[in-house]
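Hi team, as promised in this morning's meeting, here are the two structures we talked about. I've kept the exact order from the run log so nobody has to guess. The first one is mostly here for context; it's the second one we should focus on when we meet again. Sequence first, then the predicted structure tokens.
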Amino acid sequence: TKTSTSGLAVSPRAITFDPDGTAAFVTNTSTNNVAVYAVDSATGKLTVKSYKTASGTPSAILVATHKQPR
């Protein structure tokens, strides 16, 4: 995937948050990218951090986590 801090978010389709609620990921079908946002825990305001180019038209998104064994 390509990463940049400039881009365009057009036609948002799906949104998900990371488990701790500090980041949001939004798929954009017209621009074939995923926008990555930081989430302000006090206000809920979203701030764009980057755009990741998708290899096709993203229509859904899932954040998977991996817990380290103890």
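And here is the second protein, the one for discussion:
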Amino acid sequence: CLSVTIIMAAIPDEMVEYFFTWGDAAYCGDRIRAFFKAGANTVIAAPSSPDKAEFDMACETFTPANFQVTS
């Protein structure tokens, strides 16, 4: 079984930054829109925060009713 350290060392930071986004809602929203503009047809948003209010806000921010992607 490979260790997490070995796996993490094998994945370049640039690859992580290419496929994932993290930060505040405005930054993540801009990145998600850029993914769609670049041709993505599906994006998976998985908010994460140890603070329940922050987590709830992130979940609400990225619902279809609140987050639109325009071409």
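Starting points for discussion:
The mean pLDDT is 88.
Helices lie at 4-10, 13-19, 25-37, 52-61.
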